[in-house]
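User: Second chain of the day. Same drill as before.
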Amino acid sequence: MNDSILQALQNKQRDILADIQTIVEKESPTRNKALVDECGREIRKLVKQRLGAEAEVFKREAFGDHFKYTFGSGEQQLLILAHFDTVWPQGHLAYKEEGNRAYGPGILDMKGGLVQAIWAIKTLIEQNIPLNKKIVLLCNSDHEGVSSPDSRKLIETEAQKSVAVLVPEAAEPYTVKVARKGILRYTLSVTGRSAHSGNNHEKGINAIVELTHHIQYLAQQTDYSKGTTVNVGEIKGGTGINVVPAKAEASVDVRVSTMAEAMRMQTLVESLQPCHPEAKMTVSGGIVRPTLEQSSQSKKLFELVHSFGKQLGYEVDGVFAGGGSDGSFASALGTPVLDGLGAAGKGPHAEHEHILINHLEKRTVLLAHLIQALVK
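Assistant: Same format as last time:
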């Protein structure tokens, strides 16, 4: 193990945290392009300050601009993926510190990890550690709630050129993520026939009642033993209590542990047919994120990071996560992926979202050692 990395990052905790605060205070809710772009400019300013590097910027209209950096040289490359958009509306949360915890919108998911990646690369360069493969840092803006529809092609293009993909997403202390669930999302839209609920009830076709048959059927597909969950998260329908509703709609989120199960659930949902012979129903959607399943090659990535953890004096566990990650797109192409390499903390997407300050150095050291091992 290269002790120069550990020595270089000692006593850098407050510096790393200050950079995280700078990025967190530039709020970046996914669907607010102006704010996301402002945050992106702040990140590029930070990288310029810390690494002297300029980004290749991918201008966008619907979402914030994406950008990437390339460090080192060589025919092969290592890809680091980091999104900088957040789930939080502007002004909902503020940055604050309480003891060993730092709070703020997106601080755990995943601005803390992005800054740690910048510091890991900075340390390798400043210690003159040879980078015999290129390190590509790709920052995307369209992750939260929309599953990276615009940046997916960028991610897949870079992943296909890479020997491995590292994702500094959030994690619990002393863990990384070795597998993730895949995600399917659907909208069920039912059309019935409106009627007066008192005078002509028998002539109506109740779209809400029709929809409830399918909601119940889908909910019954949840199977915790398989890791399959179905959540009907939104329903809409009706215009008044005395009107048989002609329209109803439901939004459905499905999580699965394997691509085989994803295909089974895709067939099941997309084969739904109306129960009432005169009702009409459309099903739109599909697989929005493939599963991230541990391959023999990605297992080797975990074994590396586990070994580095031991040398640094602690155990690193590999865990399975139910949330989605852009690393899944790379994994589906056969590129080995290790996820959850970012900041340690709790509460992603929750009011108490926070990182643990005393883990900043050790997580950055761990990431730097892993990057070094993969580009030597």
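The chain has ten helices and 18 strands.

User: Great, on to the next one.
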